[in-house]
Amino acid sequence: MAWTNYQLFLAGLMLTTGSINTLSAKWADMFSARGCNNSPDHSFSHPFVQAVGMFLGELCCLAAFHILLCHDKRRTEPSMNAGRSFNPLLFLPPALCDMTATCIMYVALNMTSASSFQMLRGAVIIFTGLLSVAFLGRRLVVSQWVGILITILGLVVVGLADFMSGQKNDARNLSDILTGDLLIIMAQVIAAVQMVLEEKFVYKHDVHPLRAVGTEGFFGFFILSLLLIPFFYIPVGGFSNNPRHVLEDALDAFCQIGQNPMIILALLGNTVSIAFFNFAGISVTKEISATTRMVLDSLRTVVIWVVSLALGWETFHGLQVLGFIVLLVGAALYNNLHTHLLAKIPSCAHLVRKGEDEVDVATAEAAERERLLDGGRVEEQS
Questions:
Q1: Of the four, 5, 56, 66, 186, which is 20 to 30 A from 98 by CA?
Q2: Does residue 348 carry a pLDDT above 60?
Q3: In 231-254, which positions are buried (b, 16+ CB within 10 angstroms) versus exposed (e)?
Q4: 332 near 340, Cβ under 8 Å?
Q5: Torsions phi, psi of 236, nearest 5?
Q6: The organism sits in which domain of life (predicted)?
């Protein structure tokens, strides 16, 4: 079935804004400017300020939700499902996970390349799969376990590519690259916890996706903004690149922005792109399919890599290409993309139906366990 113009627009918007999001964050890291009190030129190394900007973008999704809701209510036949009322504090635990993971990733982006950053984020598949088995009672099919193993192999290949590129430079640069890669993978563990928490406690309340993203953005923006105050006084020695060597020097960030206004352009690119990326991603899932969203998310890794090469931000490494292909295969298997391809082949259609039946049985078993657990909790409370 051919895509409509609107579906093509959504796919292009998701691919473009998703790529801009990572590239603009890396672009901000590459600027240098004088700080407060005429301190000498130094790189713009302010991951927590950048994270605040990202959460501001997510907060904009909440505003977009209310605008769309008001517009829908004015129609003669409203069609927008606003979802049931809920306690916003349900979003606090996943928001804290999102805040922690985002801050760690922005710290890591200062140390490694934009393309490796995007590729290594694929590690979230591994931890999401394992945690969903442990805490959601889900049973993964064989193809998903194979996808997890292939993803691990892809991470190893990307890590080797970064190791070989770091060896060409000084030892400190190699240490930074490997530390950055490890931080990204560690952040994916926290991101996987966030996804499990959302599925376990949030999505069963029928919350509109834009409202969910915006509520998490609300908590992340205000909590992290307040944390910038104690971060200003916490010394971290050589770990930080700001002149005062504290965890985050927000005043230094604003002084650098004043000295070089181009930095604010990069920060705005990050904020605006994350808002439109969330909107486009949710819309692609609704208008086309979740599989298409996964494919587009993988394609933006290619866009980020190609643009980084074209701008001279990094050099070409064949191992990185191999790593991306392996990661793509792992993600495709985990998300059952192969079943969609096999379903188009008449001789393989029965295999697809058999695999879908296995997934349905596993899902039903998990739902029954959840129902029994909920019943046990009610009995205990009574």
A1: 66
A2: no
A3: beeeeeeeebebbbebbbbbebbb
A4: no
A5: -130, 10
A6: Eukaryota
From the list 317, 23, 312, 307, the residue with the least C-alpha distance to 157 is 317
Instruction: Give the max Cα distance, the chain.
Output: 73
Question: 3-state secondary structure string, 201-270?
Answer: HHHHHCECHHHHHHHHHHHHHHHHHHHHHHHCCCECHHHCCCCCCECCCHHHHHHHHHHCCHHHHHHHHH
Model confidence at 220: pLDDT above 50: yes
Burial class (CB in 10 A: 0-12, 13-18, 19+), 376: exposed
pLDDT exceeds cutoff 60 at 364: no
Give the pLDDT band (50/70/90) at residue 88.
confident
CA-based torsion, 349, 350, 355, 358: positive or negative? positive
As given in the structure block, the two tokens for residue 194 are 């966030």
| Residue 86 near residue 207 (C-beta atoms within 8 A) | yes
**pLDDT tens readout for residues 106-128:** 999 988 888 889 899 888 889 98
Across the strands, what pairs with 33?
A: 42
Assess whether pLDDT exceeds 50 at residue 373: no
Task: Give me the residue label for tokens 């290619």.
Answer: 302
Global pTM reads 0.82
Q: How is residue 326 written in tokens?
A: 């392996």
Burial (0-12, 13-18, 19+ Cβ within 10 Å), 1? exposed
E strands, the chain, are 32-33, 42-43
Residues 6+ apart with CB under 8 A from 257: 33, 263, 264, 267
CA distance 150 to 155: 9
Residue 320 and residue 106 in contact, taking contact as beta carbons nearer than 8 Å = no
Question: Could you give the angle at the alpha carbon of 251 between the alpha carbons of 249 and 252, nearest 5°?
Answer: 65
The residues, any chain, with a CB within 8 Å of residue 296's CB and separated by 6 or more, are 11, 14, 15, 18, 284
Give the Cα separation of 300 and 366 in Å (integer).
Answer: 33
Residue 342 has pLDDT above 80, yes or no: no
Q: Would you state the pLDDT for residue 346?
A: 58
Weakest mean pLDDT among 92-101, 138-147, 193-202: 193-202
Q: Determine which of 76-80, 104-108, 212-216, 245-249 has the lowest per-residue pLDDT on average.
A: 76-80
